[in-house]
Amino acid sequence: MRSRSTVLETAILGLLNSSPLHGYELRKQLGELLGPFRAFSYGSLYPALRALQERGLLAGLEQSATPRRTRTASAAATKPTRSRIVYELTLLGRDYLADLLSSSGPAAWEDENFDVRFALFGQTDAETRLRILEGRRSRLTERLEAVRQSAARTRHRLDEYSAELQRHGLDKVEREVRWLDDLITHER
Amino acid sequence: MRSRSTVLETAILGLLNSSPLHGYELRKQLGELLGPFRAFSYGSLYPALRALQERGLLAGLEQSATPRRTRTASAAATKPTRSRIVYELTLLGRDYLADLLSSSGPAAWEDENFDVRFALFGQTDAETRLRILEGRRSRLTERLEAVRQSAARTRHRLDEYSAELQRHGLDKVEREVRWLDDLITHER
DNA sequence: GTTAGCATGTAAGGAGTTACATGATTTT
DNA sequence: AAAATCATGTAACTCCTTACATGCTAAC
Predict the structure, then answer these.
(1) Is B32 close to A158, i.e. CB distance below 8 A?
(2) Residue B59: which of B82, B27, B92, B26 has the closest Cα?
(3) What is the pLDDT of residues B163-173, one digit of tens each?
């Protein structure tokens, strides 16, 4: 099996599944999808688009820039100025995305991927949503257990601030578990 | 000015300031310092140690492995088996670390660095601690403001799950601000 | 007519990880 | 004798950012 798609690739495919977009616009929507502090740079976005195109998942259509408001009403005389490339999913791309969105294994629970997968829950079927939420939940409780044991082992020799950092870390994870619990009950 | 030290480098210097250690042991203590899920791999640890040594901040002393428990009490006959390299800060290294730990600019507040800097607060003077905590706090409130505005602008067209993700994100940041507030009052 | 925003891209670099390779030492 | 754990290291790769380069279009 080839390596899983990256966060960026998943997000691109998910967004383009709703509607075709060009790179610049896509970036803005990525910011809205995942929160403005996970916006990707053009330096990764454009190469990613090209790579997806080369894999046959996207088709790029060069489009002459239609001026937003033309002063003159003559529609035909627009000479092809600096154009933009509108990308859309190919049939293969749709299949690939459907496959990706129906997967609910560890890759979907991990820190790096969970957020994107969650953001695309609107395109994910209910059983898969539930399995991902539960998978993430058990992943987090495992982590909780590991941290607690490690804390118990090293409590004595641990520096004051380091200990505070661990407490806060535990707190964050516990909170996320409760958040997941709410979502899980709400899903049924 | 040369580029700031990485998280790993900072953590290494901070730990070695307390006591000399060899790589393998160092890694374990890194896990305790930052939490078991921020443990670094040997693949980054050993190159980092070498790089710090080449910059003159560390001195590595090859040490023949003293068997933990010698069956025979004869201490002298230990032939130099597989040795380990114990690293310690040079004088230059101590200066460099002191400088690093007294800095309280943006680099110390950012997501990537804040945790290490906090974990090393035991070696940081009180004014610097306070400035870092306050710097991080204001960074987070800025972020809060930005996310709220972005949310207000895009509320309507936002997908249900995407919106939930943003709410949860806001919640996490708000919590961290309150945590910082507690720490700040406690620091005075 | 100059700034601000739209639009696409490349080259180099950053900060790590994974997988691999090797071997000693201790425990079971 | 086998398995676990101690101990050090390299090569290739990952996924992304920054800085740079270019030029069009809209607004002030």
Answers:
(1) yes
(2) B92
(3) 999 999 999 99
